[in-house]
Every structure is written in C-alpha cells, then in structure tokens.
Write a structure and sequence with these properties.
InterPro entries: DUF2045. By secondary structure, the protein is mainly α. Among the domains are: 45 residues, no CATH class; 39 residues. The chain contains four helices and two strands; from the N terminus they run ααααββ. Strands 1-2 form a two-stranded antiparallel sheet. The radius of gyration is 33 Å and the shape is flat. The chain starts with 29 loop residues before the first helix and ends in a 6-residue tail after the last strand.
Length: 140
C-alpha cells in the first residue's frame, strides 16, 4: 500500500508546508478514497487472508511426507559429511562447555562476593554434615 503525501515537511523557521494546504483546492485523489473505504479494506483483508491460507496449505501439503528427524540423521550419518559433522559437533560441545564454565563462575563469584565471611549466606549449607540443606540467600 502506498502513502499519499502532498507537500509536507518543515522549513527553516519551523512552520510546516501544510500552512498553505487547503483541502478544497487540493482534493484527495479518488484512489486514496477508494482504498480507505471500508469495503475495500475488507476486500484487501480477505485477499491477504486467502493468500496466506493458500500458501500455508501448499507448504503443509508439500512437507507432509517429510520426516525432518530422518533427514537430519541421514545427513549426519552420510560419510561425505563426516568432516562437517565433526566440526559442528565440536563447536556445539565447546559452546556448551564454555557456557557451563562461564555460568558456574558467575554464580560462584556472585555467591561468594555476597557472603559475609560466614557460610550462612551460601545457598547450600555444608555445615550439616553430608546432607545439603537449601537456604534462602539474602540479596540486598
């Protein structure tokens, strides 16, 4: 949909160019009135709904018999892709380990920095012997 604009903007003294705009001397074009009409809006909405519905139906019909898990695993098991699969799995594993280490470090750093030299503010109280009892952490 296009936007109709006649003039507009502002000049150096801050007044808009619409100061001289008069609706009687510059009527809105007929196509703008037509597009903004309620019946035309409804027609445009129905066309969009029909187009999207048809596109989704065609996509579902074409992909109904495809098992994505079978496709993924057959691609992973293909000997031609062995180098790429190894690289991808190594990257995923490295990212997971990196995230685990960073998150663990952040949790432990924040927990120990909030502690007041006694172990009562830790989330797990290790003074209970072998049993770990969860406590509320006082965060101010």
């Amino acid at each position: 949909m296009a936007f109709f604009s006649y003039g507009g903007g502002s000049n150096l003294n801050g007044s808009t160019n619409f100061d001289h705009f008069n609706l009687e001397s510059h009527p809105v074009p007929r196509w703008v009135d037509l597009v903004c009409d309620d019946k035309c809006r409804e027609l445009i909405g129905d066309c969009i709904q029909l187009f999207v519905g048809t596109a989704v139906a065609v996509y579902l019909d074409k992909t109904m018999n495809i098992n994505p898990y079978h496709e993924i695993f057959s691609g992973l098991a293909n000997p031609k892709h062995e180098a790429q699969v190894r690289e991808t799995l190594a990257s995923v594993c490295n990212g997971a380990v990196e995230t685990l280490v960073k998150t663990s470090h952040q949790v432990l750093t924040n927990t120990y920095s909030n502690a007041n030299s006694n172990f009562s503010s830790l989330p797990v109280d290790f003074r209970q012997g072998g049993n770990c009892v969860r406590q509320e952490v006082d965060r101010h």
